[in-house]
């Protein structure tokens, strides 16, 4: 292969990487970075308040397809305007929750152990993070109700009964909030929330009483309703998933993009006897957790402009007059703390999304968490984890660096030969291969060992990007938040310098154009890191420094001069 063909392939490769990046941005619902369309898609503002039900007869029945049934509709909800809803606020040691008298829904949730803003501004948690909210700007609520007849729904006025506690008292382990509806269609619905100290999962009991004169067979739905806006932690250079998800033991974790819900292209398991439904965003999630063995129909749908719902629908046994039926569930509202999620429900830890590298990311997170237990600082835990990974791959890296050192040693001969035979490309290629055979050098010998390690480092990248522990976690000095970019761009500058040093230590490709591209790619790559979280930049700096040290050590042992190889830019 002559130099011109190699140069063309390099250009094609670079252009392909640009196109792949743009496609990735579009896949994640963002505008293309390099080739944006002339008319970007319009974004509808979040709907105000809870979704207004349509005039359908009911929610989809347990035997129908929720996706094809359209938006949920509450029986009789539009017959008369409900009385103004009132709210009731309850505080535990980790949650501040707001319940509404309209359907007894959970319409507000603040996480008291997590600050609203990242970047270190609220590291004393003066303003707790708001996850659930029902305002003119945002809608994110948890609702439940009955369908299958003219029964109480999430639009039915309910009364707060009992002592109506407002806070978890000192020494108290739990408290209950109880809402009762009036009789609707001969049925009364009582919803009881149980909050426990130190827990983000809330016990939710639904008691259905038949106060009429005929048997009833209602269906109970539980849903999470959220607008389609993305979270504030997104940047133009990386994206995390925001949207509904469905988990079952058989089909595992299924993410559903908002755009697929709106386009009626959502694919997920609709009938199941285990698993959960969830709304996921960067670092936080909500999920309805039902007991295993309970038959349910999962549904995901668009209920209004830029407003989406995920939930499950379960049939209750026939309830005779004067009898009642009680069912239990749990509602998780909290951070994606992997250790705690694993104890709550099978597969719930998957809301912390590592993508296709989960099999590598989970053990890396486990090791990172163990290291943090010793050092007590997530920044130093990242540094030590990268050191351990580099140590594990030491001999594999050594093989690659020895191959690079050999290439570097014969590089003057290659360059001299290229200059001498530049008018005869075919002979140049023959002479080059002869030199490689004589010196027992494989030009690709330094590539394969490094390629093997790439999945591990990509998995570590996602561990650091997805772990809520990095949010507002300080490192040293000016780094108060490992999940936010360096406010003074010091770490990205160090990363850029170490990347250039590492590139300079590598042998230059014989082709001048390839040599220039070899220098341009790290520069472009480094610019992206100015917008990346500090934890990710710290991880990359550590990897670069260790790579430079190992490469310099091997060069000295092989007697190869340690000097920078700079291309000639003309």
Quote the distance from N terminus to C terminus. 24 Å
Largest sheet, strands/sense/barrel: 9 strands, antiparallel
- Shape estimate: elongated
Strand content: 15-25%
What does the average pLDDT come to?
80
Low-confidence stretches: 1-13, 31-82
Structural class of the helix and strand makeup?
alpha+beta
Helix and strand run? HEEEEEEEEEEEEHEEEEEEHHHHHHHHH
The number of helical elements comes to 11
Quaternary structure state of the chains depicted? single chain
Strand order of the largest sheet: 1-2-3-4-5-10-17-16-13
In total, how many beta strands?
18
> Into which percent range does the helicity of residues fall?
25-40%
Radius of gyration: 29 Å
Descriptive account of the structure:
With 570 residues, the protein is α+β, with helices and mostly antiparallel strands. Helices cover 33% and strands 23% of the residues. The chain contains eleven helices and 18 strands. The chain has a nine-stranded antiparallel sheet with strand order 1-2-3-4-5-10-17-16-13. Strands 6-7-8-9-18-15-14-11-12 form a nine-stranded antiparallel sheet, with no helix packed on it. α4 packs across α5 (378-392), α4 crosses α8 (448-466) and α5 runs parallel beside α11 (534-557). The longest helix is centred in the last third of the chain and has 27 residues, at 394-420. The model is unreliable at 1-13 and 31-82 (pLDDT under 50).
Write the layout of secondary structure elements.
Layout: H1 3-27, E1 87-91, E2 95-100, E3 106-115, E4 128-134, E5 139-147, E6 158-161, E7 174-181, E8 187-196, E9 201-210, E10 219-227, E11 243-248, E12 252-255, H2 258-262, E13 271-272, E14 276-281, E15 284-289, E16 296-304, E17 307-315, E18 324-335, H3 338-344, H4 358-375, H5 378-392, H6 394-420, H7 425-439, H8 448-466, H9 490-505, H10 512-528, H11 534-557
Antiparallel strand pairs: 1-2, 2-3, 3-4, 4-5, 5-10, 6-7, 7-8, 8-9, 9-18, 10-17, 11-12, 11-14, 13-16, 14-15, 15-18, 16-17
């Amino acid at each position: 292969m002559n130099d011109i063909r190699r140069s063309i392939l390099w250009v094609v490769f670079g252009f392909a990487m640009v196109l792949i990046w743009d496609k990735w941005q579009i896949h994640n619902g963002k505008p293309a970075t390099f080739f944006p369309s002339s008319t970007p898609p319009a974004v509808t503002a979040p709907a105000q308040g809870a979704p207004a039900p349509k005039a359908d007869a009911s929610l989809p029945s347990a035997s129908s397809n929720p996706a094809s049934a359209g938006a949920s509709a509450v029986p009789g909800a539009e017959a008369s305007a409900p009385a103004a809803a009132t709210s009731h606020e309850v505080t535990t040691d980790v949650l501040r929750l707001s319940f509404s008298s309209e359907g007894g829904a959970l319409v507000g949730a603040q996480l008291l152990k997590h600050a609203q803003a990242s970047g270190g501004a609220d590291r004393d948690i003066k303003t707790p993070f708001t996850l659930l909210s029902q305002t003119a700007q945002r809608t994110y609520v948890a609702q439940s109700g009955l369908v299958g007849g003219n029964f109480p729904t999430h639009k039915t006025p309910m009364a707060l009964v009992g002592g109506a506690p407002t806070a978890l008292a000192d020494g108290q382990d739990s408290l209950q909030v109880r809402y009762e509806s009036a009789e609707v269609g001969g049925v009364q619905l009582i919803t009881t929330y149980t909050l426990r100290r130190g827990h983000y999962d809330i016990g939710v009991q639904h008691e259905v009483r038949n106060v009429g004169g005929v048997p009833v067979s209602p269906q109970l739905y539980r849903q999470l309703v959220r607008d389609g806006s993305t979270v504030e932690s997104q940047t133009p250079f990386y994206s995390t998933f925001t949207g509904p998800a469905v988990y079952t033991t058989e089909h595992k974790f299924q993410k559903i993009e908002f755009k697929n819900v709106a386009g009626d292209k959502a694919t997920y398991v609709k009938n199941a006897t285990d698993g959960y439904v969830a709304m996921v965003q960067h670092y936080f999630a909500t999920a309805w957790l039902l007991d295993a063995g309970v038959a349910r129909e999962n549904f995901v749908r668009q209920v209004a402009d830029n407003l989406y719902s995920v939930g499950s629908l379960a049939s209750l046994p026939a309830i005779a007059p004067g009898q009642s039926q009680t069912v239990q569930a749990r509602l998780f509202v909290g951070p994606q703390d992997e250790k705690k999620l694993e104890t709550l429900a099978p597969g719930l830890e998957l809301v912390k999304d590592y993508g296709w590298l989960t099999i590598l990311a989970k053990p890396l997170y486990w090791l990172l968490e163990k290291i943090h237990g010793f050092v007590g600082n997530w920044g130093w835990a990242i540094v030590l984890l990268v050191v351990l990974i580099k140590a594990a791959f030491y001999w594999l890296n050594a093989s690659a660096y020895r191959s690079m050192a050999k290439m570097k040693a014969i590089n003057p001969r290659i360059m001299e030969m290229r200059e001498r035979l530049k008018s005869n490309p075919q002979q140049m290629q023959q002479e080059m291969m002869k030199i490689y055979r004589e010196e027992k050098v494989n030009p690709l010998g330094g590539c394969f060992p490094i390629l093997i390690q790439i999945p591990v480092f990509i998995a570590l990248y996602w561990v650091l990007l997805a772990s809520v522990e990095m949010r507002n976690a300080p490192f040293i000095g000016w780094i108060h938040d490992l999940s936010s970019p360096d406010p003074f761009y010091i770490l990205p500058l160090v990363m850029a310098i170490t990347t250039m040093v590492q590139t300079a230590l590598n042998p230059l490709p014989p082709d001048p154009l390839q040599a220039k591209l070899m220098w341009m790619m790290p520069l472009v790559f480094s610019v992206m890191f100015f917008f990346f979280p500090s934890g990710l930049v710290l991880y990359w700096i550590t990897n670069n420094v260790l790579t430079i040290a190992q490469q310099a050590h091997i060069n000295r042992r092989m007697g190869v001069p340690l000097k920078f190889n700079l291309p000639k830019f003309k």
